[in-house]
Write a structure and sequence with these properties.
6-stranded antiparallel beta sheet; 6-stranded mixed beta sheet; 17 strands
């Protein structure tokens, strides 16, 4: 499985310096303001960069000064390196983003490289400097194989954010039936995707999703996905032992978030993103649903990589220590440290991992 093996990140928000080896499952724990969400927002920036919307993202984020570690006077540049383990070696994407006039960021350096197994020196392509948007797409058009593979992998490091379940949230509205290639970051096309899953491969993925939702919401029977004359479909559904059809606005916030998470994690294995990034998936879920979602995350990590953050000690109980990264704020810097199971053996004989966290034994103490 192609995977993000290592992330190096310097000068981004509260992250002055980070060198993190990633596992199949990665669980960030830490207090409010420790820096968990800042790491996740780096991947959001990467999503926008790969889509050619980097300058737009900078504007929405409050300009470059809000992205640079304590502003451009303290930190004039952001540097990032993503190393992907592929079948025959390591593919690396490296960028340096420098503060420029107009409180924006430009590419001071953008390189791609491939290091074959057992070879000492990598083959590197310099994509240029001084540009405002990534040039990896141009390198793909020029037929550079490393660029093709890295673009594919970077496009599939996807951030999902299901927090908005208000009455105007996209997931509660109609969506176009054909917008069903993959799940949107806010699940705005959830109904269209579920409709495709129902119709493909005998509905196997759809049935898995519906069966899991019934565990979380026992009143739920099935979705009623019927496109209208304009080819729009809405997340309508039926209750158990009833023919009455309800609309998406009649799902509770927690149930709707659980449905989004279930669909994301139980989609066909060959459609899973290469890296799934979720900030606080436990938000609004009751204890049983927490356990179900944690199990889904662990099983999905057998086929892809997962990076999540949490502030829930009961949610943390579902994971192994080696999957957990404690995030602490040391002065002005976020520090990331993966737990060592051997160091915790004596504690875990007496307490659960969540209880050890609450006792502030492993840092990143919950508040």
């Amino acid at each position: 499985m192609d995977k993000l093996q290592r992330l190096t990140l310097n000068g981004f928000k509260s992250i002055k310096a980070l060198d993190l080896e990633l596992h199949p499952l990665n669980v960030l724990i830490g207090a409010n303001g420790a820096g968990k969400s800042n790491l996740i927002s780096f991947f959001k920036m990467l999503n926008e960069m790969m889509a050619g919307r980097f300058q737009q993202y900078i504007g929405i984020s409050g300009r470059a000064k809000s992205l640079l570690h304590f502003g451009p006077k303290t930190t004039p540049q952001i540097e990032a390196k993503l190393e992907f383990e592929v079948e025959n070696g390591i593919d690396t994407y490296h960028i340096r983003l420098f503060h420029a006039a107009g409180d924006t960021l430009i590419f001071a350096e953008e390189t791609i490289s491939f290091q074959e197994k057992d070879w000492q020196s990598p083959k590197t392509d310099i994509l240029g400097e001084g540009h405002q948007e990534t040039k990896i797409n141009q390198a793909v058009k020029e037929g550079k194989q490393t660029a093709k593979i890295l673009k594919y992998l970077l496009d599939r490091c996807r951030v999902y954010h299901f927090h908005d379940t208000s009455s105007t949230a996209n997931v509660r509205q109609s969506c176009y039936v054909g917008d069903n290639r993959w799940l949107m970051p806010d699940a705005g096309n959830l109904a269209a995707l579920l409709l495709r899953f129902r119709e493909e491969n005998g509905g196997a993925a759809y049935q898995r999703i519906v069966g899991t939702i019934r565990l979380i919401a026992p009143f739920f029977e099935d979705f009623v996905l019927e496109p209208d004359a304009s080819n729009l479909v809405m997340l309508n559904w039926r209750e158990k032992d009833s023919d009455r059809v309800f609309g998406p606005h009649q799902f509770s916030d927690g149930t709707l978030r659980a449905i989004c998470l279930t669909t994301l994690l139980l989609q066909p294995e060959d459609e899973l993103p290469k890296l799934i990034v979720i900030d606080e998936p436990e938000l609004g879920l009751h204890p049983y649903a927490l356990n179900v979602v944690a199990d889904l995350l662990s099983k999905a990590a057998l086929h892809t990589q997962i990076l999540i953050s949490t502030q829930s000690s009961s949610f943390l109980d579902n994971f192994d220590p080696e999957d957990v990264v404690a995030v602490n704020r040391e002065g002005k810097e976020s520090q990331f440290k993966r737990l060592n199971p051997i160091e915790l053996d004596a504690w875990l004989d007496e307490y659960s991992l969540g209880e050890v966290w609450q006792k502030n034994i492993i840092g990143g103490g919950p508040h």
